[in-house]
Amino acid sequence: MHHRFALWNVPPWFGERLSQEFPQLQITQRTGYDGIEQDLRDAEIIFTISLRPQQFAATRSLRWIHAPTAAVHQLLFDEVVNSDVVVTNSREVHGPVVAEHVMALVFALAKKLPQASAFQQKHIWGQEAIWTDGVHPREIAGATLGLIGVGSIGRRVAQMASALGMRVIAVREHVEKGNPEGVQEVFAPSALDEMLKQSDYVVLAAPLIAATHGLMNAGRFAVMKPEACLINVGRGAQVDEAALIEALRTRRIAGAALDVFEREPLPTDSPLWSVENLLITPHTAGLTEKLWHRHYELFSDNLRRYLAQQPLRFVVDKQKGY
Questions:
Q1: 235 is catalytic
Q2: Distance between CA 223 and CA 247 in Å, rounded?
Q3: Catalytic-labelled residue, pool 91, 167, 235, 294
Q4: pLDDT mean over 29-51
Q5: Nearest 5°: phi and psi at 135?
Q6: How far is Cα of residue 13 from the mean position of the Cα atoms in its chain?
Q7: Is 313 part of a structural domain of the chain?
């Protein structure tokens, strides 16, 4: 696999360590696509961030695809979905660090840290402006955090937020599964608007599927509290960016923080850059020096399970998309 961002590339030690731990396997680690068809034709297991239909068509022995991402929509084209190939993801790898990032964004929005930083750059003592411009700085204890998605990220956010005294409510597809740890009330997807009406901070951490594409739109912003903030660490396509810009500029909602975008890198001419009450982080929620060690722990455990013909962990439901 190859990515323009260095951290997303598998480090050399990864394949070397696999070869040492699993000498019965032939491990091939690729950093480019030249001549990859031969490797794909012989591969029984593929560890990859993406796979194109024509590449999948070249495989002859493939039984398992593992993605070092939580999102797998890029792998779920018809040929894969309709095949017997098992797909697993890395949702538990990213949960802890992304949840920390979410809480950092909650604090930054509540305490108006971006505004303080902007005043610092201008050498301005902005105490009065920070208090009077827009929503006052707030305490998060006692505030309500609404979660859209209670997977590995959402569950961690719920635990952290509730430990800080926040009331956590959530939307989940299967309400009958009950409340995850830290969640006080669960809503069905059909009751999303009711959850939004109650939330001071709305955290979007759901998989990208048809039902969540464009989920946060003008209608949804219209039912949120005027003092509420949106935080997106899911996927950029889940937010109507034009509607968000309008909601922020008209103060329909108080603020937002985005870590993911419809186009990445975010184009230099995007109007998002100039929205004052929007905090942008450049898809950094998952960055950690522990990343590949966590990937190795998860993948090697699943590899042992595969060789022992035991059930794999983190199997994706290809029909549901997560």
A1: yes
A2: 11
A3: 235
A4: 92
A5: -70, 140
A6: 26
A7: no
Q: Are 229 and 201 in contact, with CB atoms under 8 Å apart? A: yes
264, 276, 297, 305: which one is catalytic? 264
| Each residue's pLDDT tens digit, 216-257 | 999 999 999 999 999 999 999 999 999 999 999 999 999 999
Q: What is the DSSP letter of 66?
A: E
The active-site residue out of 30, 138, 252, 283 is 283
Q: 322 in a domain, yes or no?
A: no
Name the residue with tokens 């794999």: 312
The boundaries of the domain holding residue 218 are 94-280
Confidence of residue 34 (pLDDT cuts 50, 70, 90): confident
**78/105 Cα distance (integer angstroms):** 37
**160 Cβ partners below 8 Å, 6+ apart?**
99, 100, 102, 103, 182
Residue carrying structure tokens 């050498």: 123
Q: How far is the first Cα of the chain from the last one, in angstroms, to the nearest whole number?
A: 21
Q: What is the pLDDT of residue 174?
A: 87
Residue 218 lies in a domain: yes
Q: How far apart, in Å, are the Cα atoms of 30 and each of 34, 47, 96, 166?
A: 9, 10, 28, 46
Token pair listed for 14: 């990864």
**Exposure on the CB side of residue 24, measured as CA atoms within 13 A:** 4
Q: For residue 180, give the DSSP letter.
A: P
Express each pLDDT in 9-21 by its tens digit. 999 999 999 999 9
Site of tokens 């889940």: 238
Rounded to the nearest integer, the mean pLDDT of the chain is 96
User: Is there a single domain that holds both residue 43 and residue 111?
Assistant: no
3-state secondary structure of 221: helix
Cβ atoms 18, 303 nearer than 8 A: yes
Residue 176 resides in a domain: yes
> Cβ of 294: how many Cβ atoms within 10 Å?
18
264: annotated active-site residue: yes
| 37 catalytic residue (yes or no) | no
Are 177 and 191 part of one and the same domain? Answer: yes
> Quick check: 62 and 43 in contact, CB under 8 A?
yes
- 111 and 241 share a domain? yes
